[in-house]
Structure formats: structure tokens, C-alpha cells
Design goal:
12 helices, 20% strand, binds 4'-deoxy-4'-aminopyridoxal-5'-phosphate, single chain, 2 domains, Aspartate Aminotransferase, domain 2
Length: 421
């Protein structure tokens, strides 16, 4: 039972949500997959570093020196969190989307990028702008791996770009197998870890029993219990040092003449302009806190909450939980479902207004994945993390049960935000 207690304190855990029926209740935040509430340690660190706000890499003053060292030390913390190789580059970006766009400018021109149809748009659209190929996933992971293997065997693929955990269903892909498959065909692998990093220990370099052999990893601060505006791309430096600088401007150069430039190598090449020091510092602090969690307790907490939610929802008539694969090795705290006869947007509005529960509805920036699931009009997604309690998922199950029991023939008056018979 202890595993069902929150694993960490998050900011806003005791926020009250107003109900249209009168009064208010503790807000049940079940939208961690969109943006996770900040960890208490992250909020503390923010106030610690804020007084030293000053220019980075550009000032000799005391505060500048502190800011610069906070920023540069954050790279080492992220490297350790990701289990990266000592020579891997750690480039700070705005978010996962930014990281993937950066890498898209660095994959050598003659090579294709290969991706699946289940990806978030951030791991799909940047590749569409350059030579690429896509594969439609099968109903099983095993068959999907075979399809990817067949495509890789045609040759010419430089990078396999896959999600670590689906933002739609939470299903985790077998990354060690995918990495081995890519490498066997001379390709590298990028893992979009926007969803995986906040939920599972990752070991890019490879450690027995961990997710191994990842060449590039991207994730966002705001899904990792840190504020918006920071992200990271970690990975092999050769393509990054030879590729197109992500942004042109100050700090990314070694020498500038009026009509030409010699670009810097290393992370600076892609980080032109004044960097987001607080973003990097808070992302790194979150990585430190998550890195210190017991991985077994971390996964058990999440699996128990997930099981309670999935079992509870599936026991309600007309409620379906959606999965992409019949054989995914595991799943993080993201559960996708729909309620027969109810529009997802209206059901989400009802859960918020009547029960103080925050979920996401829609197509989750993954239109091909939703098409594949047969949900062109979208669905609902409940997601949770280290600050979540059993009580949160039980409230969702009870609220969905009440909605279904109320039966059809009741319309939700969106404008008024209340139920009318
Ligand atoms: N990939 C996945 C799997 C995601 O869930 C998200 C965010 N929903 C992204 C990429 C994009 O992240 P960001 O919006 O922080 O760039």
C-alpha cells in the first residue's frame, strides 16, 4: 500500500478546484503527460539561483560567474541522469520539439530518417522536411519490429526516430531491441523521451538491465517536473558538430567576418543567444531528484495506480481503454479511454467542472496514431506521476461511473458549464 502514496512533493498538490455545483475540492491533476507540476525541490532551487541572474558566458562579474557555472554544471547533471557517454554532447534547447528540429538539421544529407506512424507530431514533422521514410506500426510490437527491420534492410537509413513511451497510450517500446536493430543495419537511434524520461530510469550508454545503446535522447523540462522553456538534446557529438547551427547568432561562433563565419563546435554551436539559465538549472535539479528515486519503487507506484485506473475504467459499461499494441512490454502512467456516446471534449469539461479533475482530450498532437486507433474524433487521456495518489484515480473512476449512470438524454450545457436535464 505504501507504493500508492506520492513519491515526491509537487507544487500545487493541494490546490482547490471550484465546482459548478457549489464548493470546491482538492484538484485532481491527471494531466501530468502534458506538463507535470514542479517538484518542491525544483521550486526551492529556482529561488536559490534567481538572485544570481546575470549574463552567461559573457560577463566577468560575480553573478555572471555563478550563472555560468550553474548553467555549465547542469550539463553534467543531465548527462548523469541520461546515463550518457562521457563524450556525448548535452545541448540545451527550448523543449523536445526544439531538440528534434535541431537534430533534423544535423543528420547527414544523404541519409534517410525512419519513423513510425504512432509518433507525436514533434517526432514526425521535423523529419518530413528532409529525406525520410515511414512505417505503419502493426498490432504487435513484435511484428512492428519486423517491419522496421525490413525497411532498415533496404539500406540508406541514417537514423531511426522512435518514441520511448507513447504520449497517447503510455505504452513503452523495447528500446534496447530497437537500438540493436538500428545498429545492426548501420543506423543510429534517437529516442523521443518526452514521456519516458519523467517515468523511467534511462541509460543511454548501456548498463545491463537498463535501456541501452541510445545515440540521441530528447526531453522537456516541463514534463520532468520543472518549468516551461527548457529542453535538452543529448547525444553523439560528430553529427552535431558538423551539422547546421540550430540558431545563427552570438555565442555560436569562433570567428565572424563581415561576409563569413566560422561556427563553434560543441553545444555552443546550437545555443546562440542568451541561454535559459533558470530553465537549465531547474531541469537539472528535477533530473537529480528523479535520478535519486528507487527505480523499483518508482515503477511500482506508477504500475499500481495505472492498474487501479485501467481496471476501474474497464469495469464501467461503455468505457474503453485504448492500446496501440497487444504486447507492449510495459506502460507508463498515461491511460487513454473513451466513453461510448459521449464527446471527449464535453466529458473532459464535465470532469473538470463537476469533479475538479483535470484530464486532456483531443488528438494529443498524434493524428496518425489516433487514426490508427480508430479515434478520428479524439479521446480522453488521464496521466499521473510522482505526486499522484490512489485517491486521484479513484475519483476519476467514480466520476466516469456517475456520468455513465446518468445515462444518455442528458446534455451538457457547455456555456453554462453545468448539467441540464
Ligand atoms: N514527444 C512526445 C512523446 C510528447 O508527449 C511531447 C509533448 N506532448 C512532445 C514530444 C513535445 O514536447 P514539447 O511540447 O515539450 O516540445
Amino acid at each position: 500500500p505504501d507504493a500508492l502514496e506520492p513519491l515526491a512533493a509537487v507544487v500545487g498538490a493541494d490546490l482547490a478546484a471550484p465546482l459548478v455545483t457549489g464548493g470546491s475540492v482538492r484538484y485532481a491533476n491527471l494531466d501530468y503527460a502534458a506538463s507535470a507540476p514542479a517538484l518542491a525541490e525544483v521550486a526551492d532551487h529556482l529561488t536559490e539561483v534567481l538572485p544570481f541572474y546575470a549574463s552567461v558566458h559573457r560577463g566577468a562579474g560575480y553573478a555572471s560567474q555563478i550563472s555560468t557555472s550553474v548553467y555549465e554544471n547542469a550539463r553534467g547533471t543531465v548527462r548523469a541522469f541520461a546515463g550518457a557517454r562521457p563524450d556525448d554532447a548535452v545541448v540545451f534547447t527550448r523543449n523536445t520539439t526544439d531538440s528534434l528540429n535541431l537534430l533534423a538539421g544535423c543528420v547527414p544529407p544523404g541519409l534517410d530518417v525512419l519513423y513510425l506512424d504512432i509518433e507525436h507530431h514533434a517526432n514526425l514533422l521535423p523529419w518530413q522536411g528532409r529525406p525520410h521514410r515511414s512505417v505503419v506500426a502493426a498490432d504487435t510490437v513484435a511484428e512492428t519490429l519486423e517491419r522496421l527491420g525490413a525497411e532498415l534492410a533496404h539500406g540508406g537509413v541514417g537514423l531511426l526516430a522512435v518514441t520511448g513511451a507513447s504520449n497517447v497510450t503510455g505504452e513503452v517500446l523495447p528500446l534496447a531491441e530497437l537500438a540493436a536493430l538500428a545498429h545492426a543495419h548501420g543506423a543510429r537511434i534517437l529516442v523521443d523521451a518526452a514521456q519516458l524520461a519523467p517515468h523511467r530510469r534511462i541509460d543511454m550508454a548501456g548498463d545491463p538491465g537498463a535501456v541501452t545503446g541510445i545515440d540521441y535522447l530528447a526531453f522537456s523540462g516541463h514534463k520532468l517536473y520543472a518549468p516551461f522553456g527548457s529542453g535538452v538534446l543529448v547525444g553523439r557529438p560528430d553529427w552535431l558538430d558538423a551539422g547546421r547551427p540550430h540558431l545563427a547568432g552570438g555565442g555560436a561562433v569562433s570567428e565572424v567576418r563581415l561576409e563569413s563565419v566560422a561556427w563553434a563546435t560543441g553545444p555552443a554551436r546550437h545555443e546562440a543567444g542568451s541561454p535559459n539559465v533558470l530553465g537549465a538549472a531547474t531541469l537539472a535539479r528535477a533530473a537529480e531528484v528523479l535520478g535519486a528515486l528507487d527505480p523499483v519503487a518508482w515503477t511500482r507506484h506508477e504500475e499500481q495506480l495505472r492498474a487501479a485506473l485501467v481496471d476501474g475504467l474497464e469495469a464501467i459499461d461503455g468505457v474503453g481503454v485504448h492500446r496501440l499494441f497487444a504486447d507492449a512490454p510495459s506502460a507508463i502512467g498515461v491511460v487513454n479511454f473513451s466513453i461510448a456516446g459521449y464527446d471527449a471534449g464535453l466529458a473532459a469539461a464535465y470532469l473538470s467542472a463537476e469533479h475538479g479533475i483535470g484530464v486532456r482530450d483531443g488528438r494529443f498532437c498524434a493524428h496518425p496514431a489516433l487514426t490508427r486507433l480508430g479515434l478520428p474524433a479524439g479521446s480522453l487521456r488521464a496521466s499521473f506521476g510522482v505526486g499522484s495518489r490512489l485517491e486521484d484515480v479513484e475519483r476519476l473512476v467514480a466520476a466516469v461511473g456517475q456520468l455513465v449512470e446518468a445515462g444518455l438524454g442528458i446534455d451538457y450545457a457547455v456555456d453554462a458549464g453545468r448539467w441540464v436535464p
